[in-house]
Every structure is written in structure tokens, then in C-alpha cells.
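Hey,

Quick one before I head out. I ran the complex with zinc ion overnight. Inputs first:
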Amino acid sequence: MESWTGHEVPRLPGEGVPLRLYDSARQGVHPSRPDGAATLYVCGITPYDATHLGHAATMITFDLVQRMWRDAGLTVRYVQNVTDIDDPLLERAERDGEDWKVLAMRETALFREDMESLRIIPPAHYVGAVESIPDIADRVLVLLKDGAAYRLDDGTGDVYFDISATGTFGYESNLSRAQMREIFPERGGDPDRAGKRDPLDPLLWRGAREGEPSWPGGDLGPGRPGWHIECAVIALNLLGDRISVQGGGNDLIFPHHECSAAHAERLTGAAPFADHYVHAGMIGLDGEKMSKSKGNLVFVSRLRADRVDPMAVRLALLAGHYRTDRSWTDELLVEAHERLDRWRRAAAAPSGPSGEAFLTELRARLADDLDTPGALAAADAWASGTLAGTADDPSAPTLFADALDALLGIRV
Ligand code: 5CA
Ligand code: ZN
């Protein structure tokens, strides 16, 4: 499906710095060293409600990854999906008496606008689950023939993945079996389904049901895809057997990324599926994770409608480290507006302290697992020096503005 429209990213002088990122599988910060082309797959929205600040924070995180890679001279191939068929979408459409396709189209369109306003560089391929169904069905069939998947014999046509198929299940999330067992049903899993080999086996293909949309699955029979196989197949088809970064919020560590990695690894024989599994913290409101099911949401589109500067929204989200679960507050937005105003006044000054020194510090902070609090502190220090009026590098204000634009996605 269509992506959104991007904008020019300024090219910065000097050398970019190789990015180091925390990998959930290895539980540590490691250099991200793609040779030549870097490949990024980010788990996108399930479009049954508008983009909230949690989605925005996650998308901004991976936007920074892309900006750092580009600055370091890498070519970036970026794919993001839209889960435009899944239970939550059908349930919401049913609740509101709406056509699920229309609901998905409307919310996806709004998401694109939100992403554009936040200056997120668009993915080269923005791909829906629905348009990927023939490819997904083909891959499920391969797993079935290969013995890595099995069909329940209850007449439903449902196909499950056997989590013992790779021999390494659990390496990505590092969770104990008991922890997995607890989380699985909270995130779409069905441990108690009769006939499964293992309670943690995830659904690959749901056989057609009366009153539910379904697609011809060839030899699989009619039905629709499970969730994890969707992301595995889209990533494999567009980015190859091994990707640099698999990204999403930390609510996807298990079972989603564990299972999609297992599916991909069994299909290709290449492991690990991703060099880095990178997870953004949850943005909450009043101490609770912001989620569509809880209804405690602050929408990007609502803020835009209230004429809040999207750059202030972006800056407010960058004020915390991406891996930290954190709360959105009105205070955060007030501070971001003040900071943006200071940065704008400084960028408009005739001269400032060394622009090169600022750029070096900004690159160093972001290269260290996207240390945005450190990056913002560096920009604050440069702006204070400029507004104090004692420094005399006339090229610095332009370099300051370009660096913020290229690396933080903040246009002053
Ligand atoms: N379609 C699936 C991924 S394949 C999905 O999780 N959709 S979603 O709409 O629920 O979330 C979209 C993206 O935003 C995911 O990467 C998810 O991890 C992230 N996300 C969801 N809620 C939050 C939150 N409160 N804070 C930060 N990120 C979040
Ligand atoms: Zn996904």
C-alpha cells in the first residue's frame, strides 16, 4: 500500500558515527554493523484506532536509527507493516457497526498524516497483511510440509507452528517458560486450545469461519493469517533472510518477535533472523500503558487539531530515553515548547559556539544507544552559549539547525 511523503534530510559535514544499540536477545548494547545496506523492519499499527503517543514514540525511535545509519553513509532499506486484518480490528468494526476495511483505511490514512507531521522518514515499502496473504499462505504451506507446523484435527482448518521446530525458542525474549506461559494469553495467544502440541504454539493460519473474512489459501484451504507469520513473511520477502534490526515496542518482545523470528529461522535456516531486536519502552498515561484496549489515549491527531506544534510533540517524546517506559504529561509538552522556542531563537542568532563541536557531541550521544536525553542536553548547552551572545562562529547556527533536522528530525 502507499507510504507517506518524506522530506529532504540535510547532509551533514564530516563523518557519521557507527551506531550502537541494545539488543533484547543478547541483553546488551552492541555495535550495529550492517555491511553496505542496513535493513530495518518495524512492526506497524493495527489500524482500528488513531495513532497515539505510544505509537509515535516507537516510530520516532526507529526514525532515529535510520537517520544515524544514513549519516554514517549506509544505504537503508526500511519496511513497515500494517496489520490490516486481525481480531482486534474485526472486533472494533463489529462493535461500531462499521465495515472493517473502511475502518482500516481511515485509520491508516490518519496514521500517514501523523507520521508526516512528525517528520518520520517513510518506509520504502509500507505493506498490509491483506496484500501479503498469498505469500503468507505459501510460506505456511512450506512449514506444514516441512513438519514445523501442524493442522488441528477438529475440522477448523487451523494451522499452528511447533515451537520446538528451531530448537532455540526463547532466545530472543530470554523469558522463562513460566513467564512465557503467563504473558502469552495476554497478547493474543491461546494456550488452552485443545489439540495443540505445546500450549505456546502460535497460530499460523486460521481456517475460514462463518461471518469472518477469509481468503483462498490454495492447498491450505480458505482462511486468514496469524499475526507473527505476517511480519516474518513481509520481512523475508522484502529484506532477505537476515535483517539488521527488527523493531517495535517492548510489548512485542514476546510472543510476537520470538515467534516471528522462529518462523523466519525455520523457513530460511539462517539464524538469528535479526542482528538486533530493538524495543522501545511503553508510553503511559497516569501510570498505565497507553493502549487502545484501555482507552487512555492521547492521539497525535488530537494534538494536531489543537494546533500543537508537531515538533514540540516529537521533542517531548525525545526527552526520555527510548528504552524507558515513561508517562506522557502536559508538563512534558510545556517543557518541549519552551525548549523548541530557545533552540529556534538560538538558530536565528548571527553566530554561536563551534557548530562542529556540537555536531560531534550530538553524533556521539545518539550513537550510544540513542541517548536522546544527552543529545538534548548538548543542544541546550549550545543554545545557552549562543543566547548568552559571547561566541563568534557565524556558520554555527545553520549547522546547529541542520544537525537537529538530520539527526533528531526536529526542524527549528
Ligand atoms: N500491528 C502490530 C505489530 S505487527 C501492533 O502491535 N500494532 S499496534 O497498533 O498495537 O502498535 C503499533 C506499534 O506501536 C508497535 O510497534 C507497538 O509495539 C507500538 N506501541 C503500541 N503501544 C505502545 C505504547 N503505549 N508505547 C510505545 N509503543 C507502543
Ligand atoms: Zn509485527
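Residues 14 and 20 are 19 Å apart (CA to CA).

Talk tomorrow,
K.
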